[in-house]
UniProtKB/TrEMBL annotation:
PANTHER family xref list: SPERMIDINE/PUTRESCINE IMPORT ATP-BINDING PROTEIN POTA, SPERMIDINE_PUTRESCINE IMPORT ATP-BINDING PROTEIN POTA
GO biological process: quaternary ammonium group transport
Gene3D superfamilies the UniProt entry points to: P-loop containing nucleotide triphosphate hydrolases
Domain ABC transporter: 4-234
The gene coding this protein: potA_2
Gene Ontology CC terms: ATP-binding cassette (ABC) transporter complex
Protein name stated in the entry: Spermidine/putrescine import ATP-binding protein PotA
Keyword annotations from UniProtKB, A to Z: ATP-binding, Cell membrane, Hydrolase, Membrane, Nucleotide-binding, Transport
Annotated organism of origin: Vibrio thalassae
Phylogenetic classification of the source organism: Bacteria, Pseudomonadati, Pseudomonadota, Gammaproteobacteria, Vibrionales
Matching PROSITE patterns: ABC_TRANSPORTER_1 (PS00211), ABC_TRANSPORTER_2 (PS50893)
InterPro entries the UniProt entry points to: AAA+_ATPase (IPR003593), ABC_SmlMolc_Importer (IPR050093), ABC_transporter-like_ATP-bd (IPR003439), ABC_transporter-like_CS (IPR017871), Mo/tungstate-bd_C_term_dom (IPR008995), P-loop_NTPase (IPR027417), Transp-assoc_OB_typ2 (IPR013611)
Domain of life of the native organism: Bacteria
Amino acid sequence: MSYVSVNQLTKRFGSNTVFEDIEFTIQKGEFITLLGPSGCGKSTLLRSLAGLNPVEGGQIIVDGVDITHTAPQQRGIGMVFQSYALFPNMTVAGNIAFGLKMQSLGKAEIQREVANVVELVELQGKENHYPHQLSGGQRQRVALARALVVKPRILLLDEPLSALDAKIRKNLRQQIRSIQKELNLTTIFVTHDQEEAMIMSDRIFLMNKGEIVQQGAPEAIYTHPANEFVAGFMGHYNLVAADKAKSLFDMDVNSKVAIRPESIYVKEQGRECASHISAPRTGVIKNHQLLGNVIRYQVDVDDCELTVDLLNRSSERLLATGSQLELLFNLNEIQPVRAENV
Ligand code: ADP
Ligand code: MG
């Protein structure tokens, strides 16, 4: 049996239906990421699970118990928000201890539990600091410690890293993931950042317009997008119309096909091609973007504009706008995709 089971959950704000009949299950200890564009309903879903938004229908079952109408503080769910939401007039230790004081625990026990989570999130020495004396990353670790100290059954994190700069963000990602593994804590993490979702998750639930359009392991979603939306959101898939797929790849399909920029190669002189590689097609470079390790070209092939990623192995690699090249396509990686919302 699944640890978390959500059945036909429906949430409306007035006439605005944010999601309807949403369903999923989560195993104990899984790290799930809700990924999707702004406004698709990620925060509303998380808040509904936490009991901060009443729902209009459906069920939330945790460890065999229906908690759909249970008060938030009785659910055993911890939550961390993007905005930290710390008490500014309390120290780090005071902020972390708050939830335990609410549970009327003894002073010695509170001290012990606070010391444990302070160590877990590596904030030793900061116990008597106030939030304004901390960096953004440290504040978020206080928020994390505050959620963990009450030993939640489920941890919900709503874009906890979005306000932090890139380097701190990467460190904290790893720290969150390693703490989560150490505690075997069932976790739902929200982000709109595809890379973050890929790196952190056991499984990704990709949302669009209030629906989970695809769920699965990061690798599976990345390599097998279920529809055009997923192909557009994960990576930089090229979408090629059916008639073009026929002429470019000799594929007989009745939907668009998707191919990733890194599954297109440039033909090299004298090099034999494997059988899953297409016949070469001539392309003309329209422009390029230097992404650092990768050069991303826009190439016109038979009136079809394709994105092609080449590793930036040497400066000779940079091909001038207007120059011609012979492209090869990895036929194993070309796949038909459903239209969105069909
Ligand atoms: P996300 O977190 O994916 O960016 P949200 O869950 O915040 O999306 O929002 C989903 C939809 O729900 C949006 O249309 C938003 O306007 C609406 N919404 C969210 N919170 C409220 C609220 N408290 N009252 C009314 N509408 C809301
Ligand atoms: Mg949100």
